[in-house]
Structure formats: C-alpha cells, structure tokens
C-alpha cells in the first residue's frame, strides 16, 4: 500500500524539517525533557501516604466524604496492585502535557474570542487536531524527537489542547455584554476588562476546558506509551503482548481509577464557580 501525493507531500515536509532543523529540534527536546523530568521527580518525591492524605483531603473539600472514601480506596488499590510507580509516571506526563496545553491554549482561546478571523482559523485547526486519529501524531513526533517521553508529551499536547481553546473562547464570548459595557463606561482598558470582568465570568467554561484537557491527556499518554512514555500504558501494552489478561486488566483499572479521581476533582472547580456566579447574579 502506497500513499498518494498528499501523504508523500506531508512526509517530504516532515523529512525537510528533520534534515534542516535537526539541531533546533534536539535543543527543544533537551529543554522540554528537562522540564518533564522536573515534574516527574517532584511528584515522585512525594511519599505514597502523603499523596494519599493530600488527595483524600482535597476530595473531602471538593466532593464530600463519600468520594473521599472512594479516592482513598482507589489509591490503596493501585498501591496494592504494585502500580504506584507507574501511576506516578503517568500522572507526571499528564501534568506536564496539561501544563503546556494550558499555557498555550488559554491565550489562544482569548485571542480567538477577541478576533473573528483568528477564531475562524483556530476552529479549522482545532477540528483537524481533534479528529485526526491519535496514533497518527506519534509518527512525526518520533521522527522529529526520537523515542521517549518528549515526543509522547508533544503528541499529547497536540491531541489534548483543543478543548481548553474552544471553551475559553466560548466562555469569554458568553460574558454578558452589559457587564463589558459597564466596564468600558468606567474607563477600563482592554486588559482590565479581560482580567476583572471577562476571565472571572468565563471561569466555569474555562475550568470545563481544563477538565476535558486533562482527560484527553490521560487517554493520549496511555497511547503514547507505545513510543516509550512508560507508566500505566506500558503495563497495559505488556499485558497485550503477553496475552496476560491479569496484567492488562490491572493496568487498565489503574488508568480508570486515576481518570475518575482527576475528573471529579477538576470538574468540581467548574461547578463551584457556576454556583458562585449564580449567587452573584
């Protein structure tokens, strides 16, 4: 099976980048790798029981006692299955990918909300990023950055960024016009309008985007273990390669438990923000 002109053109473009900008990609890879390593050693330095107490306490604060009990049992189950190190590795990659997705995605979302042409261009790009099969991102990432955690995080950023861009744009555009006009009538600058009126009122939508970005990053990090990302995904793939149902199930269960904890806690920040907004209204 051979690719058509379109596929060959894309392949030639990636090869051109690799041949002419290899030193740039190597330097970028080294810098990003150092940041990822910093996230990993910071999270790995936290003892299991300290992490358990911190997450259970956070769960009590955000979701209540019953979810805190579930979170404690979930983390205890991961530790019992001997998957804590793999979970820390996966969590580190999710945190790194989410951090960079938010650093790039939220400003892009703000720009899109303020400029119609930018929004049109962004929407097309985000449609492409969101609908392209996740495995496809691994191919150019491996060619340009080699194997390991750096290409895994880059592919994850591309896959996970669209929700936070879309929902930041949507949240800012949904801020009531009378609030914006009131700010302008008091002489607020564009930056003051953004910081004091638009971002606070768009916070529930932005937090929903953060939640979705974390979930997509978690799903992609597992896929990215095929190129050496390690973590729980590598455990699952090991089960597939060995046709070992037990290993595959335990790895998958670890991913599910981690996803539920991250989803419920991050989701609660958006819900609480909505309640505060209704009270103020």
From TrEMBL:
Protein family membership: Belongs to the binding-protein-dependent transport system permease family.
Residue ranges of the TM segments: 27-58, 65-84, 90-113, 134-161, 214-233, 245-262
Origin superkingdom: Bacteria
Record localization: Cell membrane
Annotated membrane topology: Multi-pass membrane protein
Tagged with keyword Membrane: yes
Any one Pfam family match given in the protein's UniProt record, by short name: BPD_transp_1
Domain ABC transmembrane type-1: start-end pairs: 87-266
CDD domains, A to Z: TM_PBP2
Name used for this protein in its record: Proline/glycine betaine ABC transporter permease
Organism: Leeia speluncae
Taxonomic path: Bacteria, Pseudomonadati, Pseudomonadota, Betaproteobacteria, Neisseriales
Keywords, alphabetical: Cell membrane, Membrane, Transmembrane, Transmembrane helix, Transport
